[in-house]
Amino acid sequence: MSEATGEQRKPGRVLDLERREMPVQESDERIRNFDEVALGYPTELAMAEARRCLDCKKPRCVEGCPVSVNIPGFIRELAAGSPERAIDVLRSTNLLPAVCGRVCPQENQCEALCALAKRGGTVAIGRLERFVADWAAARHLLKPPACQPSTGLRVAVVGSGPAGLTAACDLLRLGHAVTVFEALHEPGGVLTYGIPEFRLPKDIVRREIDTIRQMGGEIVTDFVVGKSATVAELREEYDAVFIATGAGLPWFMEIPGEELVGVMSANEYLTRVNLLKAYRKNAATPVPKARCAAVIGCGNVAMDAARTAKRLGAREVHIVYRRTRDEAPARLEELEHAEEEGIIFDWLTLPTAFHGDEGYLTAMTCQRQELGEPDARGRRSPVPILGSEFTFPVDLAILAIGQSPNPLIRTTTPGLETTRRGTIVADPETGRTNIPGVFAGGDVVTGQATVILAMGAGRKAAASVDAWLRTGEWALPPQEAPRAEDS
């Protein structure tokens, strides 16, 4: 135990409840660039924040982490002045600490269970994770994890997003040969095409993914499972298959005018910007340059789309949401950043039609709402206010109201059990589907969720794949697998 940690446990010691704030770009500057908004802790600030940790005997923060990071362990090393040991602790359970430190909703997970939470002084776990990962990367200290001797067994991982990458890393550590198949021309899944550069720089994603290759894993791009090869064909070639294709099929509202040029999904918009490098100056990427953009929805994806449109030159950007700020599913930090950047929030507002001229979007009609009784999830349901319709000019409308899994795997894998929402039925603790040797996890099972939850699913599935490959036991009755719509 470090001297600093021992100090924290002395009876009568005054708790440090002052959470250290992380420097960020000024809002009027950052809306003109795609550089990262959050600048990270300088070393002195990181050390001061780490020393606030109580190093609890029973750390509940670990219980809140889907990949079971040894949070007190890495913070203890950092507080003792050893970030080089802190990164080893972090990467023993998490291949993507620089990613998680930037995009995970720690405030609802590990930090929510911090011993200081009741006093309003939670430790900034995510920011410390980011600091340690960036510190180690800057000094070229990111060594690939050690792998057990080869088992001679081969696993196909379908999808290179958070669930697939996590499973691939764990399976390589366990000695299995792994091939990751990615449909697009660059791996990373939502980390690459879904999250903007100003929140998650792509160089960081590539750096983390390179660890898979350094461990001996193979990544095959431009390979669409369901077309290039079916799951059944992969199963003939590999000893096990893990499906981690995410939820990339966007939802639409099915209102008049959705076919107009200028109406698109957030998935398409962000993919064009991220994967085709529209964030670079003078890029030739075919992305609409809006005067007035409207983003429908109020989750993290909506924040990303709205803030991206602002950076691409839109004079006015609206987020149109049928509930209020209190019900918004986006992270509070993302909401606040959007507000600081001049995004206009139209609360209690629901689009009812898009209008155009010669096939191009020119305006949107909306109806005011009021909140009624809570829905099945406890959120108050919006109720239309009769006669409250209004129309305003927009030339870009981005729908960010949710996504489902692409149906390609489902429709090309006979016998695979799925739900009415198109998600794959798989046991949440093992990832086992109703087809022996075929596992699934992440958003393709749960529907659209968070990066860290997908990583947690990848970790559980990898352990289950390993157990099955070593024992040959397949014990899960398919009918016992919980269905996504029941969760």
Description:
The protein is α/β, with parallel strands linked by helices. The protein has helices at 3-8, 27-30, 43-50, 60-63, 71-79, 83-91, 97-103, 125-138, 162-173, 190-193, 202-214, 231-237, 266-275, 300-311, 332-340, 408-412, 443-446, 451-471; strands at residues 154-158, 177-181, 218-220, 240-243, 249-250, 263-265, 292-296, 316-320, 344-346, 349-357, 360-374, 380-384, 390-393, 396-399, 403-404, 438-440. The chain has a 5-stranded parallel β-sheet, with helices on both faces. A hairpin with a 5-residue loop joins strand 11 and strand 12. The protein is globular. The relative contact order is 0.12.
Summarize this structure as a short list of keywords or feature phrases.
487 residues, alpha/beta, Fumarate Reductase Iron-sulfur Protein, Chain B, domain 2, FAD/NAD(P)-binding domain, 3 domains, 5-stranded parallel beta sheet, 18 helices, globular, disordered N terminus
Spatial strand sequence of the major β-sheet: 3-2-1-4-16
Mean pLDDT over the residues: 92
CATH architecture of the largest domain: 3-Layer(bba) Sandwich
How many strands, what sense, and barrel or not for the largest sheet?
5 strands, parallel
Name of the CATH homologous superfamily of the largest domain: FAD/NAD(P)-binding domain
Total strand segments: 16
The CATH class of the largest domain is identified as Alpha Beta
Rough outline: globular
CATH topology of the largest domain: FAD/NAD(P)-binding domain
Unreliable stretches: 1-10, 477-487
What is the rounded distance between the termini?
41 Å
- Provide the domain count: 3
Q: Tally the helices: what do you get?
A: 18
Into which percent range does the helicity of residues fall? 25-40%
Strand % is 15-25%
Radius of gyration: 23 Å
Helix/strand/pairing class, anyone? alpha/beta
